[in-house]
Inverse folding.
């Protein structure tokens, strides 16, 4: 059994933990990252593909933007396909110039791991956190196992970036914790294919056969998703069935001969869909960030971006506490992030329930979905609402804290202003 100490103990080397470690390192605050899996597993896990403008900006500001700027594909809109027709929703016009970037989570993680190993503090792979004790004391302790041996890490602060199945959430006593959850009755079958993208932007398709999404990883590689029943075995989906179903769900009325370009499928998996939030994001000196605190169904492309937003806010708060002993930003962390989180929860739920076909869905339900999609396609205002949510709120102006409205429409001088962001944000 060995013991060590650090300022910030970070559990999990996904995007949340790695970006937090990087931001702290840049500000001169030391940390140790403990990661259950080995490096190649973490670097290969196929997940998100879309980075909001604010996520790109924070990665750049953190010194992790070099390859992203070279290889990321900037997109100015998406295509909604329903009733056999395409409708483009443009982003920069209604959002004051915001766009999204297609750059896979695998690449973000590779870039951050390389920087951490080269310049940052310790990043220990194969280190499984078991428990965190003393959350409500001045020195919480992480108990972990590595190489079959037990170790402990004493910290000023512990941050659970250990994803939905992590253990740090359990350091928050049930009596102070509230969780909100919705499990959807369908999953996504996701494939990676050596085939050029369907179109130069992402296509989100509503069809009588269920939802389909055509995304991409590069000009030569497609990332494609199909709605399937919850509990589907990927073995029931041989490659030809995947392609046929994509052709059927993405079909265009005016071009009945249109088909996807097919290629070798190199990965295939089924992903359950869930919405989940635990509140608060802090107990004593233990904090939660990213998927450890909240899950969204992937239809809104929000999970990775929320994780980046959480740790951007948290890094600034930890630096302020470590440098000046000021607890104000740490005290505000949970409320600050929860406003953005609930906005993203709503958008992800909205995108999911508007585009998927639920078991037992009635023709009435389908007509309502199509009416909503038509409204988004036809109305500048409804399109702008989607564009604003999809491209994400700028960091630092997440969702403004509620202020009392004066009769004149101006905020009171003493209104609850969110503490100024700065330092890490754009
Ligand atoms: P992660 O990435 O799950 O990382 C958690 C890390 O913690 C480790 N861990 C432990 N380490 C030590 N001790 C323990 N006891 C531990 N328990 C766990 C794990 O091994 C892991 O390395 O969480 P993080 O960092 O919060 O990042 C969240 C994102 O990964 C996630 O929200 C996104 O991938 C969600 N998501 C998307 N988000 C977007 O913003 N845009 C997208 O386009 C998008 N597409 C997606 C997605 C998620 C998907 N899946 C697989 C659900 C598409 C899909 C298909
Ligand atoms: C992806 O490229 O993996 C991706 C894109 C958009 C989503 C979800 C996943 O909404």
């Amino acid at each position: 059994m060995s013991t060590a100490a650090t300022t910030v103990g970070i559990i999990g080397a996904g995007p949340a933990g790695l970006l937090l470690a990087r931001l702290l390192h840049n500000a001169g605050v030391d940390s140790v990252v403990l990661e259950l899996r080995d490096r190649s597993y973490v670097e290969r896990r196929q997940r998100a593909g879309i980075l909001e403008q604010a996520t790109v900006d924070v990665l750049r500001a953190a010194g992790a933007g070099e390859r992203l700027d070279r290889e990321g594909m900037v997109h100015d809109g998406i295509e909604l396909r329903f009733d056999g027709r395409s409708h483009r929703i443009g982003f920069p016009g209604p959002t004051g110039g915001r766009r999204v970037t297609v750059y896979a989570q695998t690449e973000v993680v590779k870039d951050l791991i390389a920087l951490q190993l080269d310049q940052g503090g310790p990043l220990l792979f194969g280190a499984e956190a078991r428990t965190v004790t003393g959350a409500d004391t001045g020195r919480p302790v992480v108990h972990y196992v590595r190489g079959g041996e037990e170790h402990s890490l004493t910290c000023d602060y512990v941050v659970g970036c250990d994803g939905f199945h992590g253990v740090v959430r359990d350091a928050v006593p049930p009596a102070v914790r509230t969780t909100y959850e919705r499990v959807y009755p369908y999953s996504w079958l996701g494939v990676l294919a050596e085939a050029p993208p369907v179109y130069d932007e992402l296509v989100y398709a509503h069809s009588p056969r269920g939802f389909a999404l055509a995304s991409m990883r590069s000009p030569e590689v497609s990332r494609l998703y199909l709605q399937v029943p919850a509990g589907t075995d990927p073995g029931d989906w041989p490659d030809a069935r995947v392609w046929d179903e994509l052709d059927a769900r993405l079909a265009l009325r005016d071009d009945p001969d249109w088909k996807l370009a097919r290629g070798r499928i190199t990965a295939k998996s089924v992903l359950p869909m869930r919405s989940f939030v635990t509140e608060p994001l802090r107990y004593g000196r233990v904090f939660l960030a990213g998927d450890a605190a909240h899950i969204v169904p992937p239809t809104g492309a929000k999970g990775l971006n929320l994780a980046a937003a959480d740790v951007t806010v948290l890094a600034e708060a930890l630096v302020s506490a470590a440098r000046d002993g000021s607890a104000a930003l740490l005290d505000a962390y949970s409320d600050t992030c929860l406003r953005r989180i609930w906005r993203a929860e709503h958008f992800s739920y909205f995108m999911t329930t508007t585009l998927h076909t639920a078991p037992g869905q009635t023709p009435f339900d389908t007509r309502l979905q199509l009416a909503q999609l038509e409204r988004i396609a036809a109305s500048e205002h409804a399109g702008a609402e989607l564009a604003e949510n999809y491209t994400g709120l700028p960091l630092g102006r997440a969702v403004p804290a509620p202020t009392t409205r004066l009769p004149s429409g101006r905020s009171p001088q003493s209104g609850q202003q969110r503490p100024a962001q700065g330092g890490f944000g754009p």
